[in-house]
């Protein structure tokens, strides 16, 4: 008798999920309402591996809420937590609004209570709240010396529930996103690392932006990064407070209003599936 056939297998523990994306920023969405949180850093990293797991830019875990329609936690694919994720918030809002046929929904994230709405053309808008401009709260260092960074020009530090360093550049095609983004993310001046945006101003209402995300690397879009870029451009006097922003995966509309920064764009459900967590290889 073959020993292989008799090798005991751990019990099957299926975890179902929905795969969605917003402008190519892709997410695994797990619904943990009514049960304990299931995601740990190690599990997030294993599921996030694009070769050995499922693959995602962020994992969003939906939780029951006492003070909103749902609570939402975010994980990057390196297993780290993220305090905000604009595009995943829009995707989850779309998923739940389709489920309940509602036209709006409240979602509590680490950054606070967010309101999302369905638009007339079936896109999703979310109010990402007010930017945090006090660097001590972002958290970033007050004494930022950009001279040693592989870039010229001062970054603008903006908190949207997560940290962003926005660089304005004359020619975005000249940026080596992997090299320069990674160098800025890991620069010791950012004690909690940072998301990095490179923005070329095309007009007062049109920005081209590319992003290097903390904990996930190059992504096709970043909602909180788009909000941070609008805030930075507007504060520098480079644009108006409402712009369209072209990112690698498509176009977002950003509107910095009195009640916060609103972001609008498409969402797409890709598939629903489940996997057996006992198959996932731990990734160090
Ligand atoms: N893709 C996101 C932002 C994800 C979080 C980020 N990588 C972090 O660590 O803060 C978005 O759409 O906002």
TrEMBL record:
GO biological process: lysine biosynthetic process via diaminopimelate
Similarity section: Belongs to the diaminopimelate epimerase family.
Gene Ontology terms for molecular function: diaminopimelate epimerase activity
PANTHER family in the record: DIAMINOPIMELATE EPIMERASE (PTHR31689:SF0), DIAMINOPIMELATE EPIMERASE, CHLOROPLASTIC (PTHR31689)
Recorded metabolic or biological pathway in which this protein acts: Amino-acid biosynthesis; L-lysine biosynthesis via DAP pathway; DL-2,6-diaminopimelate from LL-2,6-diaminopimelate: step 1/1
Catalytic activity annotation: (2S,6S)-2,6-diaminopimelate = meso-2,6-diaminopimelate
Gene Ontology CC: one annotated term: cytosol
Function: Catalyzes the stereoinversion of LL-2,6-diaminopimelate (L,L-DAP) to meso-diaminopimelate (meso-DAP), a precursor of L-lysine and an essential component of the bacterial peptidoglycan.
Primary subcellular site in the record, as a coarse category: cytoplasm
UniProt-recorded name of the protein: Diaminopimelate epimerase
Quaternary structure annotation from Swiss-Prot or TrEMBL: Homodimer.
Keyword Isomerase: yes
UniProt KW keywords: Amino-acid biosynthesis, Cytoplasm, Isomerase, Lysine biosynthesis
EC class of the enzyme, as a word: isomerase
Catalytic residues in the record: 85, 222
Superkingdom of origin organism: Bacteria
Subcellular location: Cytoplasm
Site (Could be important to modulate the pK values of the two catalytic cysteine residues): 164, 213
Positions bound to substrate: 25, 58, 76, 86-87, 162, 195, 213-214, 223-224
EC number: 5.1.1.7
Species the sequence originates in: Pacificibacter maritimus
């Amino acid at each position: 008798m073959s020993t292989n056939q008799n090798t005991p297998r751990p019990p099957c523990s299926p975890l179902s999920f929905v795969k969605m994306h917003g402008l190519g920023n892709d997410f695994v969405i797990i619904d943990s309402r009514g049960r304990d949180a299931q995601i740990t850093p190690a599990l997030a990293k294993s599921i996030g591996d694009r070769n050995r797991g499922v693959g995602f830019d962020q994992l969003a875990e939906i939780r029951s809420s006492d003070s909103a329609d749902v609570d939402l936690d975010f994980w990057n694919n390196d297993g780290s937590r993220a305090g905000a994720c604009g595009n995943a918030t829009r995707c989850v809002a779309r998923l739940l609004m389709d489920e309940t046929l509602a036209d709006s929904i409240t979602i509590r994230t680490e950054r606070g209570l967010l309101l999302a709405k369905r638009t007339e053309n079936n896109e999703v808008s979310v109010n990402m709240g007010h930017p945090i401009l006090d660097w001590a709260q972002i958290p970033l260092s007050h004494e930022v010396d950009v001279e040693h960074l592989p870039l010229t020009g001062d970054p603008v530090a903006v908190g949207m529930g997560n940290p962003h360093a926005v660089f304005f550049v004359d020619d975005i095609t000249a940026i080596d996103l992997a090299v320069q983004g990674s160098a800025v993310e890991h620069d010791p001046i950012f004690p909690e690392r940072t998301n990095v945006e490179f923005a070329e101003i095309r007009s007062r209402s049109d920005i081209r932006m590319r992003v290097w995300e903390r904990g996930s690397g190059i992504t096709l879009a970043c909602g909180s990064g788009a909000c941070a870029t609008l805030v930075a451009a507007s504060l520098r006097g480079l644009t108006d407070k409402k712009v369209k922003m072209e990112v690698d995966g498509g176009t977002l509309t950003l509107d910095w209003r009195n009640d916060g920064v609103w972001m609008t764009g498409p969402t797409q459900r890709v598939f629903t599936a489940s996997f057996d967590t006992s198959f996932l290889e731990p990734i160090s």
